[in-house]
Amino acid sequence: MQTNFTPAQLADPHVAESEAILRKCVHCGFCTATCPTYVTLGNELDSPRGRIYLIKDMLENGRPADAEVTTHIDRCLSCLACATTCPSGVDYMHLIDHARVHIENTYKRPLMDRLTRNVLAAVLPYPGRFRMALHLASLARPLKGALKRIPALKPFAAMLDLAPRTVPAPSAFAKPGRHEPQAERRGRVAILTGCAQPVLDPGINEATIRLLTRLGVEVIVPQGEVCCGSLVHHMGREEQALAAARANVGVWMREIEAGGLDAIIITASGCGTTIKDYGHMLRLDPAYAEKAARVSALAKDITEYLASLDLPSHMPRGIAVAYHSACSMQHGQKITMAPKLLLKAAGFTVRDPAEGHLCCGSAGTYNIMQSEISAELKARKVRNLEATRADVIATGNIGCITQIATATGIPILHTVELLDWAYGGDMPAKLKGLEPAAG
Ligand code: SF4
Ligand code: SF4
User: Fold this and answer.
1) Nearest-CA neighbor of 222 among 168, 258, 184?
2) Three-state secondary-structure class, residue 321
3) Which ligand is nearest to the CA of 366?
4) Which among 190, 294, 196 has a CA at the least distance from the CA of 249?
5) How far is the CA of 138 from the centre of ligand 2 (A)?
């Protein structure tokens, strides 16, 4: 794509990067077919190619964002299916990241939109506040119907829809400390405890730590970890996201320097995509660029790390698992085979749902901010998952677990919970009474 930025515009490294990305796009439109919002809404401006044009026009003309551009960029899930499909290697992720920051810096959103975003940014990244908000949500549940009838309050109704009926107790595993290997030592890793996940489903990190230590890996839960910054990063709140990235880089560098780390283990693929991008996010910060690149190189999804441990194969156990590949896993991190191969080796029968490339509609805070498109994508995803007639659904991202669980009776677990069970742990509570489905 031809661009016409001035030398003065290109002196800004963010603009220069976006220009290089835009130039790669040959507007072939291949990406439209796999874009969930284009597939759902059928509007070119809600396709990757349409958004690329809108971003180009806005940046090239040095214009502040307006309501129209903001609407179409907000509807983007940042699922990155377009980046997987694109034959020209267009780096859509960094282009849309730049556009979101530009919107945040130049566009004044309507009052309720600002308020909702401020609430989300002030609550979700902090486990203590998030836990309290979930308790409040159970009291506010009777208001859900009334909130849904007022358009500006729909995001709050969506929050109530997603909030679990009971909030699990905090896990002792989330506390900073060291978990000793229970077998011959094979490595030393740090684990990101995360922000929303340990509140919504503390069993995921518990299963991870149990499995790793049983396999001979020392697991450190470092003091001072914060949310990875992904939630605010996708809202264009760059300073808040960079502050989170710097804090985590500092924490993990201390561990690297103290005892060495073989990996930084991440159990939510949404966080993994962002942490693997810390090197890029902090590339212009001389105090952090090198350290952030080192941290990004060490970041591993739990399934990536387990794949390196060469686990033994088990006999089939007669349980069919539909594997839902989170967008941040398959498109963001390009991890497609490791989770399925691990499940197969552990004795599960793995089934691939149709349209596996399409997002389930969770996408960070998307299911709160864009609840109608999100609901359509969720229904489509659940139809495809249920059509596999599997006993269990497995995935690697808490956002997808929360989203899909609201619409199906099939138990949905994190992949690592099934692997922990297969390699010596207890049967996950969600599977108690499981009767494997026929066929
Ligand atoms: S597939 Fe790639 S090159 Fe083609 S329109 Fe989409 S982003 Fe541009
Ligand atoms: S990131 Fe996903 S929703 Fe956004 S343009 Fe690409 S395919 Fe469409």
Assistant:
1) 258
2) strand
3) 2
4) 294
5) 33
- Which of 31, 75, 80, 82 to mutate for ligand 2's pocket (most ligand atoms within 8 Å of CB)? 82
Q: Are 127 and 198 in contact (CB under 8 A)?
A: yes
Among 77, 96, 234, which residue has the most ligand 2 atoms within 8 Å of its CB, making it the best to mutate? 77
- Smallest CA separation from ligand 1 atom 4, residue: 28
Residue 226's closest CA among 302, 126, 122?
126
Q: Pocket residues for ligand 1 (CB within 6 Å)?
A: 25-31, 48-49, 52, 82, 85-86, 88, 90
- 56 Cα: distance to centroid of ligand 2 (angstroms): 16
Is a pLDDT exceeding 60 seen at residue 300? yes
DSSP symbols for 380-400: HHHHHHHTTT-SEEEES-HHH
- Of ligand 1's listed atoms, the one at least distance from the Cα of 27 is 5
Looking at residue 317, the DSSP 8-state letter turns out to be -
Tokens encoding 166: 């009971």
Of the bound ligands, which one is closest to the alpha carbon of residue 38? 2
Pocket around ligand 2 at a 6 A CB cut-off:
35-37, 48, 51, 76-82, 92
Question: Coil, helix or strand for 167?
Answer: coil
Contact, 55 vs 21, CB < 8 A?
no
Q: Which residue has the higher pLDDT, 57 or 157?
A: 57
Provide mean pLDDT across the span 151-179: 89
**What string of H, E and C letters represents the secondary structure of 31-92?**
HHHHCHHHHHHCCHHHCHHHHHHHHHHHHHCCCCCCHHHHHHHHCCCCCCHHHHHCCCCCCH
Q: Which atom of ligand 1 is nearest to the CA of 32?
A: 6
Task: Say if CB 233 and CB 274 are below 8 A apart.
Answer: yes
Spacing, Cα 373 to ligand 2 middle (Å): 13
Q: How confident is the model over 93-132, as pLDDT tens digits?
A: 999 999 999 999 999 999 999 999 999 999 999 999 999 9
Average pLDDT over residues 261-275: 98
Task: Work out the average pLDDT over 161-169.
Answer: 89
Contacts of 423 (CB under 8 A, 6+ apart): 211, 214, 215, 311, 346
Digit-coded pLDDT (tens) for 217-229:
999 999 999 999 9
DSSP state of 23: H
Q: Whose CA is nearest to atom 8 of ligand 1?
A: 25
Q: Whose CA is nearest to atom 7 of ligand 2?
A: 35
Round to whole Å and give the CA distance between 347 and 111.
53
